[in-house]
Design a protein that fits this description.
By secondary structure, the chain is α+β, with helices and mostly antiparallel strands. It folds into six domains: 11-37 and 58-171, no CATH class; 307-426, no CATH class; 432-495, no CATH class; 498-551, no CATH class; 552-619, no CATH class; 638-761. Helix content is 39%, strand content 10%. The strands form seven sheets. A six-stranded mixed β-sheet has the order 1-2-3-4-5-6. Strands 7-8-9 form a three-stranded antiparallel β-sheet, covered by helices on one side. Strands 12-13-14 form a three-stranded antiparallel β-sheet, with helices on one face. Helix 1 crosses helix 3 and helix 19 (679-716) runs antiparallel to helix 20. The longest helix is centred in the last third of the chain and has 38 residues, at 679-716. The termini are far apart. Residues 342-353 have a biased composition (Polar residues). Residues 36-56, 322-353 are annotated as: Disordered. InterPro entries: SSSCA1 (IPR009563), UPF0148_domain (IPR051888).
Length: 761
């Protein structure tokens, strides 16, 4: 509330009628006590002269030149340097306050000068010309507001936005100016740009490197390849709402309007105007005509509605009635009449009729009738709440209450939660008792099919701690709700209102646009969990999801492990394995996914991954230089392992045929004495045998440890033992026995090689 300040003696109101940009008080101007030149005479008129006057003559041409130069940015920069030098000084005493300068606009509340015309700036610098620098410094103490034309402040606005310390000032363009320039400060424009960029990106708009010439904010391109500024349309809407006065009561526009006034008031909607007027009445921000009834309660909100708005409201009601009647006539033929409210019964209705389950809801008709009902209830004295309805179809309609009752939404007739009223008609209620009964049958059937009971229970409230079942691929599922056990999916999905989803997406959009304004980049991919766009700080950085956090499932392995895994994949390709068609990398560990020969199952070959293929655990690899005899690269008849003395000795001591058949030891191809003329080939073959034996022994021992660990896990789950688990325990025990025999065979092979080296011919 701005209280009028008494005009001191010797002052008069500023003829321009402008207000102080800080306190909104009317400006005054000190009148000269002696004859001074306050304006420039029109050209062609000679100034009056007095021969007896000893005062120096005034050069009107020089003053005209000085006036033009005062409109330049250079002169204004000098004024700003004075302001920056004196602004930090605290002048609490009245004696240290800057003395008003005659001919310059002055705010008595803030006790600062406000430059509203270039002539006033010229007046200050004329004092500098006369040698009175102290007067100018005193006039510029505390704070200086410059309110001049747009041509003078173009360069100054750029300096201010760049944050130069010598330009800490406020620029206010004149209210009479039609220029669309920097009427709003940079922070306000940047905040609008951040929100609009995020919204338009989700709708398919593309960013450009072009800045708008008017607001210096980025431009974007829509799907029709049309370039548009993201801020100028919003700023134009603000100017139209607060300056045109079409259907909107007159009130003063502050230099930093809030976002509520930007996004909530719709000048084309009469009900929106009623809402804005009623809220201003509650907050004490009424127009002067309605300020006299500040203590009138709710009646003053209804009296503040202009006759034009009421007339338009009646026209809208008539249109709405005809539209709803036509829709009812069309739907009555099919017997599927939508949920609507007859406007003729508005005065007798307190809420919409109760709807039945599964009935179709016509939200367009409800929105129209709800706004008409809102207007009438305001006139009847209903109290306007500060909360809006959270329903996704109600479009933030304010809640109304009568005589202390629970606030009600006039659109959905609910309490504002978005879950009751008309929204109840769209819900398919879940019968949890039937789901629990069916879940028991499903559980029995799954156990027969080989599913395994997990140690975890479903977190759903209505599932009553049902144990989760695990499929062969490790997927967990609840037999009651059908979800993964989190209590948020499956049959619980409808409990998450759509307004919550929209709020999450709006928050993510705002965060994404903010990060993009800070230099982050937007990825082309989406998050696998929430389908939100991924962002990254730079090209090589980790992808980030605003909702889920880091999205980097393919870089879980370090470089050394990944190189080892890739080498193993190259060896398996030579044995007939194929890379995964859907995804070449595992989503769990980042390892290589492959498909074994004569199989359609694709899985990870990393032995440390929980999703590893059984074939990758049991089988070992042959080295790339030792291809099987079916290979086209090596075909000498001497490279057949059956003629090797080493293998013959091994066959005599241990039946290795069974181990080779089971794939527990590699099928090696080594040299034989047939190479009588090439001694180097035999020595190379034996070195390969030694390295192969050592590698195979290490792989067998590692697989033996894994088999022991799996057996311990199964033994620890005795409470969930089934026939399938017992069978798996027996298989693992047999596998351990085979691995132990294979390890003994490999050890004896090394001893034979060390004791009986091959003969050199």
């Amino acid at each position: 509330m701005v209280y009028p300040v008494a005009i001191p003696d010797g002052f008069q109101p500023c003829p321009k009628g402008v207000h102080c940009p800080s306190c909104k008080s009317k400006l005054i101007k000190k009148m000269p006590t002696e004859v001074t030149v306050s304006s420039i005479d029109p050209p062609g008129l000679d100034p009056p002269t007095n021969e007896n006057d000893n005062t120096p003559s005034i050069d009107y041409a020089a003053i005209q030149t000085s006036l033009e130069s005062a409109r330049t940015a250079n002169l204004l920069l000098q004024a700003m340097s004075f302001d920056a030098a004196t602004r930090e000084n605290n002048h609490d005493d009245d004696q240290q306050r800057p003395a008003p300068v005659s001919g310059v606009s002055y705010c008595p509340s803030c006790r600062v000068h406000v430059i509203t015309d270039p002539c006033e700036l010229t007046t200050l610098f004329d004092k500098v010309t006369n040698g009175d620098e102290t007067a100018v410094e005193s006039a510029l103490r505390g704070r200086l507001y410059v309110c001049v034309s747009e041509d003078d402040v173009a360069s100054l606005a750029h300096r201010k936005e760049m944050g130069e310390p010598a330009c800490s000032y406020d620029i206010i363009t004149p209210s009479s100016s039609n220029h669309k320039g920097n009427d709003f400060d940079y922070e306000f424009r940047h905040k609008i740009a951040t929100k609009e960029m995020g919204r338009k990106i989700t709708k398919g708009w593309k960013m450009t490197e072009v800045l708008c010439e008017e607001c210096e904010m980025p431009c974007m391109i829509n799907c029709n390849e049309e370039k548009e500024c993201v801020v100028c349309p919003k700023l134009d809407a603000i100017r139209c709402k607060f300056t045109s006065g079409e259907g909107l009561p007159k009130f003063t526009l502050s230099m930093n309007p809030t976002e509520d006034s930007l996004f909530e008031i719709d000048e084309g909607d009469p009900v929106s105007l009623i809402i804005a007027e009623a809220r201003r009445a509650i907050k004490g921000e009424h127009t002067p005509d309605a300020s006299g009834c500040a203590s009138g309660g709710v009646e003053r909100a209804a009296s503040a509605v202009s006759p034009g708005v009421c007339a338009r409201s009646k026209v809208e009601e008539a249109k709405m009635f005809l539209q709803s009647k036509a829709k009812r006539d069309d739907k009555s033929k099919d017997g599927t009449a939508p949920l609507t409210l007859d406007p003729s019964n508005i005065e007798n209705a307190t809420s919409h009729p109760i709807t039945t389950q599964g009935q179709v809801v016509d939200w367009d008709a409800l929105l129209t009738t709800g706004r008409a009902l809102f207007s009438q209830r305001i006139q009847e004295g209903w109290e306007l709440s500060t909360d809006n309805c959270s329903g996704m179809h109600c479009k933030n309609t304010p809640l109304l209450s009568k005589e202390g009752e629970v606030p009600v939404c006039t659109v959905c007739s609910g309490s504002g939660t978005g879950m009751d009223g008309a929204y109840e008609a769209q819900k398919n209620e879940v019968k949890w008792e039937d789901l629990v009964s069916n879940g028991r049958v499903i559980l029995t059937e799954r156990l027969r099919q080989g599913w395994i009971l997990s140690e975890e229970n479903c977190n759903g409230v209505n599932c009553k701690g049902t144990p989760l079942t695990m499929a062969e691929d490790g997927t967990l599922s609840c037999v009651v709700c059908g979800g993964c056990g989190s209590g948020l999916d499956g049959a619980y999905a409808f409990l998450k209102s759509n307004n919550v989803v929209e709020a999450e997406r709006a928050l993510a959009t705002q965060e994404i646009s903010y990060l993009m304004s800070m230099g982050w980049m937007l990825r082309d991919s989406l998050c696998d969990k929430c389908d939100m766009p991924l962002v990254a700080q730079h090209v090589d950085s980790v992808d980030l999801c605003i909702m889920c956090g880091k999205n980097n499932p393919l870089n879980l392995m370090d470089n050394a492990c990944f190189d080892e895994n890739a080498n193993e994949a190259a060896q398996r390709i030579q044995l007939g394995w194929r890379l995964g068609d859907a995804s070449p990398l595992c989503a769990t560990c980042g390892g290589v996914q492959m498909t074994p020969p004569n199989s359609m199952e694709c899985g990870c070959i990393n032995r440390a991954c929980p999703m590893v293929l059984p074939e990758a655990l049991v089988s070992t690899l042959a080295l790339p230089s030792m291809m099987p005899e079916t290979s086209q690269a090596i075909k000498p008849h001497s490279h057949q392992g059956t003629g090797s003395e080493v293998l013959k000795k091994m066959t005599d001591k241990l039946s290795i045929g069974r181990l080779l058949k089971d794939g527990l030891v590699p099928l090696m191809v080594c040299g034989a004495p047939d190479y009588a003329d090439d001694q180097s080939a035999l020595s190379d073959d034996m070195s390969i045998i030694r390295s192969t034996t050592t590698n195979a022994l290490g792989a067998i021992l590692a697989r033996l440890d894994q088999a022991k660990y799996q057996l311990e896990v199964l033994n620890a789950q005795r409470q969930y033992s089934t026939e399938e688990v017992v069978m798996k325990q027996g298989e693992i025990a047999m596998l351990i026995e085979k691995l132990a025999n294979a390890a003994v065979a490999m050890k004896e092979m090394e001893q034979i090689e060390a004791r009986d080296p091959p003969m050199c011919m």
